[in-house]
Amino acid sequence: MAPGVRLPPEIQLAQRLAGNEQVTRDRAVRKLRKYITARTQQAAGGFTHDELLKIWKGLFYCMWMQDKPLLQEELGRTISQLTHAFQTTEAQHLFLRAFWQTMIREWVGIDRLRLDKFYMLMRMVLSESLKALKTQGWEERQVEQLLELLTTEILNPDSQAPNGVKSHFLEIFLEELTKVGAAELTADQNLQFINPFCQIAAHTEDITRNIFETIVEQAPLAIEDLMNELDAQNGEEDVSDGDEESSEGEQEQDSARRRPPAGSMHGTDPEADGEQVQDDEDSAGPVLQFDYEAVANRLFELASGQSTPSQNRKRLYKVIRKLQGLAGGTFPEDDVPEKAYKKLLEGRREPKKKKKKKKRLLKLQPQNERGGGEAETSSPDPNPGIEKRSRRRPKRAGQRRVPKKRKPLPGARAEGTGVQ
């Protein structure tokens, strides 16, 4: 190139993003965000596909050069959030398409020591693309455009995506969709999200294992989520506004009564407390709701085609039978309230109301009136028609369950605490 010729801004930024000095790279990322915002705000602005490919090549090597896990996570979050700097949906999707094309092109050159950071980057970019849909109210047309992009670049059997990119995408898709939209997406919207997987499931085993079998495994959690919604709504209906102050006082007394005494085994075992917190985190949060009959019908329509290989057809029929069983009321849990079952078949998720602290206290009040901890342990079940959920909950996708330790009885003390 002749001296004095100025390089385009995209090439200049890409060179700085791939620089050897971290200070230079960090400054280039900040400038890139401002440049994207300013350019896409213009009426005649925007980027071409080739320009975004150059920018992503610089971002790829910016991540390549970053060491130390905490700094890698921070950089990955900064890079993925560039998605929101684009002022139009078309520019966002063009940016995301260039990302997946860059990962597919560069994947074979990534050594095993750097795989984890790029796995993390793919997860973060997918999460931010779903958050962009959430900010737009899950508009159907925008959802279709994103799914078309992901299908073309990754899921389509004719795509150039390596197996490593495909398998990781299948592992994280439902997890990230659950984190972003499980609290508000309806069953019909979730069916739209998994429709591309239904169309391709007849030709690949990985999709059946990572998507549809995961939906079946999480069915008890989805039902439990619906039951919690019903409990919350019923509790809010029973509580009057005038009892708010007294309920808060009862909550403090109840928490004091339930607190283990000083020197007890439970109070002196921080490891057990940590395991309990970990188990609570595993079982917390909403789960994606599905109309199992609609999913089964969609899969059956595709699996029964003449072009479906016999081995794949047998595999899909096995999943379809499980889904039909769930649709007919054959749930992994023995006793599911009728209201929860009807709500599941409606295929809709009602918006959640804010939970009040009073709800749980009303259930504890009769026990307090009977008096003491002994009355609590010996009192009959207030809901004898519903089996207590003492069984182990199924494991969520991508999570490892930590075994619970047996808790000592209240009042049990550690050895030596009574010696003066």
**Secondary-structure element order, as H and E?**
HHHHHHHHHHHHHHHHHH
Determine the strand fraction and express it as a percent band: under 5%
Low-confidence spans: 256-272, 276-283, 350-395, 400-420
Count of helical stretches: 18
Compute the separation of the termini in Å. Answer: 88 Å
The total strand number stands at 0
Q: Sheet bearing the most strands, described?
A: none
SSE-based structural type: mainly alpha
Mean pLDDT: 76
State the helicity in percent bands. Answer: 55-70%
What does this 3D model show about the protein?
- Helices cover 64% and strands 0% of the residues.
- The N and C termini lie far apart (88 Å).
- It has helices at residues 9-17, 22-41, 49-65, 69-80, 89-106, 115-135, 140-155, 163-181, 187-201, 205-217, 219-238, 244-258, 270-282, 292-303, 310-327, 338-346, 358-370, 372-378.
- It is mostly helical.
- It has 18 helices and no strands.
- The radius of gyration is 27 Å and the shape is globular.
- Residues 256-272, 276-283, 350-395 and 400-420 have low confidence and may be disordered.
- Helix 1 runs antiparallel to helix 2, helix 4 (69-80) runs parallel beside helix 6 and helix 8 runs parallel beside helix 10 (205-217).
Keywords for this structure?
420 residues; mainly alpha; 18 helices; globular; disordered C terminus
Topology of this structure?
Blueprint lengths: L8 H9 L4 H20 L7 H17 L3 H12 L8 H18 L8 H21 L4 H16 L7 H19 L5 H15 L3 H13 L1 H20 L5 H15 L11 H13 L9 H12 L6 H18 L10 H9 L11 H13 L1 H7 L42
Helix pairs in contact: 1-2, 1-3, 3-5, 4-6, 5-7, 6-8, 7-9, 8-10, 9-10, 9-14, 10-15, 11-16, 11-17, 12-17, 14-15, 17-18
